[in-house]
Amino acid sequence: MATGLMDQYNNRITYLTNEIQRYSKLVNNYSLARLATIIGGFLFFFLSLQYGNPWISSLIAFTIIFLFAWLVSKQSKYEGQKDYLHNLKSIIENEVANKIFRTNIYDDGERFMDDHHHYTSDLDIFGNRSLFHFINRCSTFLGNNTLANWFKAPTATATVTERQSAIKEIASKDEWRTHFQAVLLFNNKADNSLIDKLVNYINQPVVPMRILRFYVISIAPFLFLGVLIFSSLNPSVSGLLIILSLIHLAIVFRHQLYVNKTDALIGKTGKTLGLFSAAFKAIEDEKWNTALCTELSNNVNGKENHRISGAINQLSALIKKLDYRLNIYVGIVLNSIFLWDLRQVFAIEDWKTQNKAAIGEAFEHLAVFEALNSLAAFEVNHPENCYPEVVESEKYLYVAEGISHPLIDQNIRVANDYELSNENKIDIITGSNMAGKSTFLRTLGVNAVLALSGASVVAKTMKLSPINLVSYMRIRDSLNESTSTFKAELDRLQMILEVVKDQPQTFFLIDEMLRGTNSVDKYRGSKAVVEKLVAQNGVGIVATHDLQIAHLIQKYPDYVRNFYFDIQVENDEMHFDYKFKKGECKTFNASLLLKQIGIEVE
């Protein structure tokens, strides 16, 4: 474990704890000040009415209102800062827990689990304690989707290289990285409803209503002011003001369906949008050097330097103003004077016209930054990782030194080397139970997924050509699909054979095929599958307990290679070294394992 990194995390946690306590005291002090202002203000106001004159009373009332509003504003500011510091502390504490216990407060990607996917189920890419759960630092629904898509399919070599550079840059910006996560932590449930609402609203056509719009925006306030002044100067016609107010209320009531439609789509989202604005602002304000980060930032800034953060803030403010209608008394007053509901809806529609093209894309760019930031956090927490060299090759290339599994604690995991250099081969791995065959297959698979998503890998060095992974490891029966284990195995093998035939650069990982049948048919079937894969020029690895499969090297000496994992037995004690060796396994342990649970094998 990187002690220096853990010390940095713990020092930041201590600092943030002290800062949270300081802001908590400030918030409490302002609460007391507000209470004192109300009590003292009313006391002075009452005394001024008893012994002063109306002008002094009015001045005291104005002072009380102004001071109280200022105190509320300051307290709200400190509350917001305290909440932000709480989020930041949660982020740092999560990094500590992630590094020590492999836990994570972020989404585990369970909704992406798919037993029919070519490899994600077998390699534990999604779900509790999965690769996604370990690495994910995305708060938004779109961010989670983006990272999941990177793990579900390999990308072009040029894109991998571009992502690697971007991830390295983000990893070097520790303050920015944790700040970006902290301002988005409010959305950590990955709820897509807000963005869906916003995009749905943006795609709705704008209702013209030009005459009404002109009256509400350009005439109504000035007309009301004119009638108010005229009524003040001529008390005999004061009823005009009441009539105008009732007309305004009637107009608003007449168009309530129109207002309510807008409110249903984006109402009560003002505060949340304001928080999203902070995330966009973090991207906009940072100076980026790599091509991908610069491109994404420029797109977020919008055309002609039109900042998305400013646009989102503007919409947030407009929605908050529209929400004034939720207070019936305030709503009546504002609508009678300004036709408030219509005025805000028209302003929101003007905003939509100006920003429609940029907003949807902006959230997609935000999602990419979240995915990149997730992979950057993985690099920061595991400086022993390396960035693989992904190169185009006509033949298969997978060369790794010191490769191991990212979900196994680095203090106990065993690293191995693997080499497939510009050639087509099928590797047969034999070995004892629990010796490490399945883990090794998953190690190669998971690190290939990381490499082809742009992430660092758990290896000293790694060189890889773009490959399409397909696996056969965790075969389940299905009552819902009326599928037995053996039928599920056959379906999976058929899929692998079709993918190998139809998709170039397919690399398969097969672990103990045909477990659902008798030993004779298992051997004959496994042998036939391997020979079929050889005939199709397939490339990959087959792990098996059946030594006879390893004998295929005699028939295909230029195509099949044999490797093994074994054990050492001393005084009926098994010792595993989990090392990947060339050749065939000579030591098996099933009988010994049965003996340990009280079953003697003759």
UniProtKB/TrEMBL annotation:
The lineage of its organism: Bacteria, Pseudomonadati, Bacteroidota, Sphingobacteriia, Sphingobacteriales. The chain crosses the membrane at residues 32-49, 55-72, 211-230. It comes from the Bacteria. One of its GO terms (biological process) is mismatch repair. One of its GO terms (cellular component) is cytosol. The keyword Transmembrane helix applies. This is Mismatch repair ATPase (MutS family). InterPro entries: DNA_mismatch_repair_MutS_C, DNA_mismatch_repair_MutS_sf, MutS, P-loop_NTPase.
